[in-house]
Design a protein that fits this description.
heterodimer; A: 254 residues; alpha/beta; Rossmann fold; 4-stranded antiparallel β-sheet; 9 helices; globular; B: 320 residues; mainly alpha; MetI-like fold; two-stranded antiparallel sheet; ATPase-coupled polar amino acid-transporter activity (chain A); ABC_transporter-like_ATP-bd (chain A); EC 7.4.2.1 (chain A); ABC_ATPase_HisP-typ (chain A)
Chain lengths: 254, 320
């Protein structure tokens, strides 16, 4: 039996005196879409950032595809890895940010080919072909030469998704991908994510889009104050939550 | 009596057709008056200078294109370029060190900036010029042993030109490092995070993502520094590094024509500074890629446009 794509056991994280993750247990199987929901400050974004080691974990164990991300295990100790080694392991984990974080000094195409050519060692012409194909897939085949400032928020976010996919990741992390978008632009981005899920990509999505979680998610995880309150089938968790806190949150969001 | 409910009707006649109304811009009569007074004052000043016999325009003319002046000019130019190159490279390294989480690197960088920014440039120039008084030989070896890999007489190594380059370059590095550091810190941390999430290493992230974006903030003050550097090279005349100012001084030490020689120097410094503004504008445009910002017109263009506005003409042609 192969290891799950993401396995978290008792993950803890603190910023100074504030403990933001108080022991998170979570499993995401291959090909599954896991949606993290919860009020702001519940630790869901922090947990997502721990998965690719943008945040260091203070306790517990977090593996991606059976491999520790920021650490090397020796007996009962976890040794922190050097930045270079962490970079190596992040290549397989794509991430999409709330504020897109496209490189503003590069065109859409240059954004997409940057990591394949500079990190994965793909030839420029091959990377360009692949990038054009990816941009076409996210519906932006005609925007390859545009700079991010010349694109709408929704278009920027789709370029960001194409950029992450260019490294052929086995796991995609989405940190509130539609929260910074105008309402009429949300649909295009969710469509791209929906297709990605249908193609079998493993995804962890922090979102406030309850509809998306219900429709696309294989699991929904409700977090509050650094703990997982409730997790399971989205239709169950979002329609008939067992916990009072989940119910209170959903009644405010819906 | 004016009807308060329909004030718009009072100034325009009822029969005025809205499509044929002409908008008249504000007339700046005071600007016209100020322009006339300024031009008259300047003309008076220039006229009095031209007629002043003590200025010896003939001497200015003789020396403006003299070989000795061109030699000094060449030294000033390469000294400026080399000192800025040294300052920028070393400054960038120091800026990255200062932002490092490594306390040793941070400490060394902070110490460097403290020393070279904290002492007068003139003192540093004289120091490097007379370093031979401190160490007769320059040696590279293992401390506290007799093993040496390299040994040379300080005076043969530290020629006035090299001493000048070191003094200007190291001093510049201290200032440049602060400019570069501000530039790096102006880049959204999300950019580095995005690069890291794509598997880019810290050094690659700095080179490909952070520094190119920092350049937009770095270039204007560095242009300033370059112009400053060109003029500060005049200070190295104190160790006679044979720059423009040194040679000017050599000349007036012999012919006592101090003012005319200073005019020659000023004309050349002014000409060079003017030339330097051109690459700066070009660099700003290049690193401004991807920012939707207008107003990239050259200074000359803007001034001409200002004249047009002063004349009260309607500026119908676009600014680009």
């Amino acid at each position: 039996m192969t290891a799950p794509m993401v396995l978290a056991e008792g993950v803890r994280k603190r910023f100074g005196r504030l403990e933001v993750l108080k022991g998170i247990d979570l499993t995401v199987e291959r090909g599954q879409v896991c949606c993290l929901l919860g009020p702001s400050g519940s630790g869901k974004s922090t947990f997502l950032r721990c998965i690719n080691h943008l945040e260091k974990v203070d306790g517990g164990k977090l593996t991606v595809d059976g491999e520790l991300v920021g650490y090397r295990q020796q007996g009962s100790r976890l040794h922190e890895l050097r930045e270079r080694e962490v970079a190596e392991r992040r290549r397989d984990i794509g991430m999409v940010f709330q504020r897109f974080n496209l490189f503003p000094h590069m065109t859409a195409l240059e954004n997409v080919i940057e990591a394949p050519t500079k990190v994965a060692g793909v030839s420029r012409s091959e990377a360009r072909d692949q990038a054009r194909h990816l941009l076409q897939q996210v519906g932006l085949g005609d925007r390859a030469g545009h700079y991010p400032a010349q694109l709408s928020g929704g278009q920027q976010q789709r370029v960001a998704i194409a950029r992450a996919l260019a490294m052929k990741p086995k796991l995609m992390l989405f940190d509130e991908p539609t929260s910074a978008l105008d309402p009429e632009l949300v649909g295009d981005v969710l469509d791209v994510m929906r297709r990605l899920a249908a193609d079998g990509m493993t995804m962890v999505v922090v979102t406030h889009e309850i509809g998306f979680a219900r429709e696309v998610g294989d699991t929904a995880v409700f977090m509050d104050e650094g703990v997982v309150v409730e997790a399971g089938d989205p239709r169950q968790v979002l329609a008939e939550p067992e916990q009072e806190r989940t119910r209170a949150f959903l009644s405010k969001v819906l | 009596m004016i009807d308060a409910a329909s004030p718009a009707r009072t100034s325009l006649g009822d029969d005025a057709d809205a499509h044929s109304i002409e908008i008249v811009p504000v007339r700046h009569y005071a600007r016209w008056a100020a322009a006339v007074v300024s031009v008259a004052a300047l003309a008076g000043l220039i006229g009095s200078l031209a007629k002043n016999g003590n200025l010896h325009w003939d001497i200015v003319g003789t020396y403006l294109f003299a070989g000795l002046i061109f030699d000094g000019l060449a030294t000033t130019l390469w000294l400026t370029a080399a000192a800025m190159a040294l300052g920028l490279c070393l400054g960038t390294l120091i800026a990255v060190m200062r932002l490092s989480t490594n306390p040793v690197l941070y400490g060394l960088a902070t110490f460097f900036v403290w020393i070279f920014r904290g002492t007068p440039l003139l003192v540093q120039i004289i120091f490097w010029g007379y370093a031979a008084a401190l160490y007769k030989y320059v040696m590279i070896g293992i401390p506290f042993t007799h093993i040496t890999f390299f040994k040379a007489e300080t005076n043969s190594l530290l020629t006035p030109a090299i001493a000048a380059l070191l003094a200007l370059g190291l001093n510049e590095a201290a200032y440049a490092s602060e400019i570069v550091r501000a530039g790096i810190q102006s880049v959204d941390p999300g950019q580095a995070e995005a690069a890291h999430s794509l598997g880019m290493r810290p050094a690659l992230t700095m080179r490909r993502i952070v520094l190119p974006q920092a350049m937009r903030v770095i270039i204007p003050p560095m242009g300033n520094e370059t112009i400053n550097m060109l003029k500060m090279t005049a200070l190295v005349s104190i160790i006679s590094a044979h720059d423009l100012m040194s040679n000017i001084q050599d000349v007036y030490a012999q012919n006592y024509q101090i003012i005319p020689m200073l005019v020659v120097a000023s004309v050349w410094y002014l000409a060079l500074v003017t030339l330097l503004s051109i690459p700066q504008a070009w660099l700003e445009r290049r690193y401004g890629r991807g920012t939707a910002r207008a107003g990239n017109a050259s200074p000359l263009r803007r001034m001409l446009q200002g004249t047009a506005l002063l004349a009260g003409r309607k500026n119908k042609e676009g600014t680009r």
